[in-house]
Every structure is written in structure tokens, then in C-alpha cells.
Amino acid sequence: MSERIHRIKKRLFEDFSQKKEWWGIGSSILTDENIVSEPLVVRKALATAYVLENMPISIRDDELIVGNQVMGQLNLGEHSRDMLRKKN
Fold first, then answer.
1. pLDDT score at 69
2. What gap in Å lies between CA 64 and CA 2, rounded to an integer?
3. CA of residue 20 relative to chain centroid, distance
4. Three-state secondary structure call for residue 71
5. Is pLDDT above 60 for 76?
6. What is the phi/psi pair of residue 5, to 5°?
7. pLDDT of 75 higher than 80
8. How far apart are CA 51 and CA 46, in angstroms?
9. pLDDT, tens digit, for every residue of 14-32?
10. Which are the contacts of 83, defined by CB distance < 8 A and separation ≥ 6?
11. Alpha-carbon distance 58 to 21, whole Å?
12. Where are the domains positioned within the chain?
């Protein structure tokens, strides 16, 4: 393995051993009274815009592919129920 891979691997194991706060847990714009009556496609667009505008960016040394893992992502199903419910 290259030195770069060793550094990344070491950092990953160090990161996994530390407790961290995940961005996006417990926050949702999907239940906002102004958004709940919008069509599903608009709610998805507004949720995506919110994430892109507010999620912190992390670019670490040695990384060629960058990004944050977010536990509250829509594809993990946490907010899917709220997004699909239309309240009138």
C-alpha cells in the first residue's frame, strides 16, 4: 500500500473510534407548514436545496473523492414518511 493509503486508513480508523455528531439528524424542512402542501416533486427539490445550502463540507488531506456521510439522508428512509405525507 502507498503512504497515502496508509494515512487515509489510519485516519478512518481514528475517526470511527471517536463519537461524532451527525449533521441532519432531527432536522427536517419537510414538515414545515409552508412546504407540506406543495407537490412531492417541489418538496424533494426544496429538501435537496436545503441540504446543499446547509450541510457542512469536509475535504481532508489525501482524498481524491470527497464528501460527508450523513445519517439523516433521505435514502436511509428517515424522512421518507414525512415527505410522502400530504397534510391539507
1. 62
2. 14
3. 14
4. coil
5. no
6. -65, -40
7. no
8. 9
9. 877 777 676 666 667 777 7
10. 30, 40, 43, 44, 47, 74
11. 14
12. 21-84
* Cell of residue 77, nine digits: 428512509
Tell me: the pLDDT tens digits for 33-58?
888 888 889 888 988 888 888 888 88
Residue-by-residue DSSP string for 29-42: STT-HHHHTS-HHH
Does the predicted model carry a pTM greater than 0.70? no
Per-residue exposure over 37-62, b if at least 16 CB sit within 10 Å of its own CB, e if not: eeeeeebeebbeebbeeeeeeeeeee
Helix H or strand E encompassing 53: helix 40-54
- Rounded to whole angstroms, the Cα distance separating 37 from 87 reads 6
Residue 44, helix vs strand vs coil: helix
Q: Rounded distance, CA 48 to CA 21, Å?
A: 21
